[in-house]
Design brief:
Blueprint lengths: L8 E7 L3 H14 L4 E3 L8 E6 L6 H21 L6 E6 H13 L5 E3 L7 H9 L6 E2 L4 H7 L10 E5 L1 E2 L10 H4 L4 E2 L2 H13 L4 E5 L18 H9 L6 E5 L8 H9 L6 E3 L7 H7 L5 H14 L4 E8 L6 H14 L3 E6 L17 H26 L3 E9 L6 E4 L5 E4 L9 E9 L3 E6 L6
Parallel strand pairs: 1-2, 1-3, 3-4, 4-5, 5-6, 7-10, 10-11, 12-13, 13-14, 17-19
Antiparallel strand pairs: 8-9, 15-16, 15-18, 16-17, 18-19
Length: 455
């Protein structure tokens, strides 16, 4: 007698914020797939909708509640047409920080699950279906989470994220991460290598290692000895098929000598580093509790570029931090001119409830922050354009990821994370091919193959 066919259910995950949330969303889909859940592009007919939230951006909570209201209406419409009931789950950092409040304020939500507990999703969904048991799971047990996840990943394309570290012990006064992701914790080396080998077997050529403070990685190796991020990088580079490595996001205080040396020694480690500084003013850096000064940051950048002269730098900057004067902001502009950035993320300061900075005096007026942000962005754009212009005429190894919109056009990724559009290259998906950069796009590069390349 044949067993009954498994009923397929539709899963829609909406991901907010950082790359770690992208990784977490992929892993949630992985653990729900054996239960019969298939991914849906939209929430219209989904049986389960997961909002994987981020607490970093301004008004994050309000956006989540607005989306919950929309899903509640959508669920009613789905039930009215006989489509069954939609389960609504809130995951991620807003769930961690405001879990009980969400349950109290939004009864439409079926379950709330923090970033360290999403491995419990199958059990929680079963409990929710039976309408009993816990609806809230928000703890700090990353080891239990990763122990519960298999190394098997459902990936498409030649690039993938791989979380190796979670949490942060730095307690910058503007940041909620220590409260939403917990203390720093690193995965064992063996677990990471197993997952990476699985990715390579599926055709992944480039892996980006993720962590809230990834260069603080201190996992245990097979001999029970501590491993730094640099040691982990060397081990990953030995995996057949893994040709490119990146990592994000880092703290300047955790750039060890061995990691700096790895940028010069390890060909697989791409020449692009995201190293946030946040401000160029020593006074503001102290108020932020960054635990480093301007001079130390500049010296660090010089050491890294000495090890890897072709390195391009990315950073994060906050304007309008409480107490920031015109002089402090000018110090930030001066730092940007001194260092030189290929790209950067810039933000106006916005208070996060429960963080020390939220109650600091001398909050900067909104119009002042707007003006400073515009000036900083103009300088960053100028530097970004200047860096891209240096690439025109160069030959860069490009990893082709997907087909373009026109004809046989393909889109690849440069070593510096830029999109590169190339004609007559749609047969090269997953390959790393030399490409001459011929022109600049608004946010991309255009290139040409040096010669016809076989698939």
């Amino acid at each position: 007698m044949n067993s009954p066919a498994r009923t397929s259910k539709k899963l829609h995950i909406k991901t907010y914020g950082c790359q770690m949330n992208v990784y977490d969303s992929e892993r949630m889909a992985d653990i729900l797939r054996p239960l019969g859940y298939e991914m849906a592009e939209t929430s219209d007919d989904a049986d389960l909708v997961v909002l994987n939230t981020c607490h970093i951006r301004e008004k994050a909570s309000e956006k989540v509640y607005s989306e919950i209201g929309r899903l509640k209406e959508q669920r009613g419409e789905k039930e009215a047409r006989g489509g069954g009931r939609m389960t609504i789950a809130i995951a991620g950092c807003v769930a961690q920080a405001e879990g009980q409040e969400i349950m109290n304020r939004a009864p439409a939500v079926d379950l709330v699950i923090g970033p360290q507990a999403y491995h419990q999703l199958p059990e929680l969904i079963a409990r929710t279906t039976r309408m009993k048991g816990e609806r809230l799971a928000a703890d700090f047990a990353p080891d239990a989470k990763f122990d519960a996840l298999t190394a098997e990943r459902n990936v498409t394309g030649p690039t993938a994220f791989l979380t190796v570290q979670e949490g942060c012990d730095k307690f910058c006064t503007f940041c909620v991460v220590p409260y939403t992701r917990g203390a720093e914790w690193s995965r064992p080396v063996a677990s990471i290598l197993e997952e990476a080998r699985g990715l390579a077997a599926k055709g992944v050529r480039e892996v980006t290692l993720l962590g809230q403070n990834v260069n603080a990685y201190n996992g245990v190796d097979a001999d029970g000895q501590p491993s730094t991020l640099a040691k982990l990088m060397y081990a990953l580079a030995d995996i057949e098929g893994i040709d490119r490595l990146r990592y994000t996001t880092s703290h300047p205080n955790d750039m060890g000598d061995d990691l700096i040396a790895a940028h010069g020694d390890l060909g697989a480690l791409m020449p692009y580093l995201h190293l946030p500084v946040q401000s160029g003013s020593d006074k503001i850096l102290r108020a932020m509790n960054r635990k480093h000064g301007r001079a130390a940051y500049v010296e660090l950048i010089q050491r890294i570029k000495a090890a890897r002269p072709d390195l391009a730098l990315s950073g994060d900057f906050i304007v309008g931090f409480p107490g920031e004067t015109d002089r402090d902001f000018e110090d930030t502009l001066d730092l940007v001119r001194t260092v030189g950035y290929a790209s950067a993320f810039t933000f106006k300061y916005s208070p996060r409830p429960g963080t020390p900075a939220a109650s600091m005096p001398n909050q900067v007026p909104e119009d002042v922050m707007d003006e400073r942000l515009q000036r900083l962005n103009a300088l960053i754009v100028e530097q970004q354009q200047a860096f891209k212009e240096t690439l025109v005429g160069q030959v860069l190894p490009v990893l082709f990821e997907k087909k373009g919109r026109y004809g046989r056009q393909a889109i690849g990724r440069s070593p510096y994370l830029q999109s590169v559009f190339v004609e007559d290259a749609d047969h090269l998906m997953g390959q790393i091919v030399p490409v001459r950069i011929t022109a600049l796009g608004n946010n991309s590069l255009q290139g040409a193959l040096l010669a016809p390349v076989e698939a």
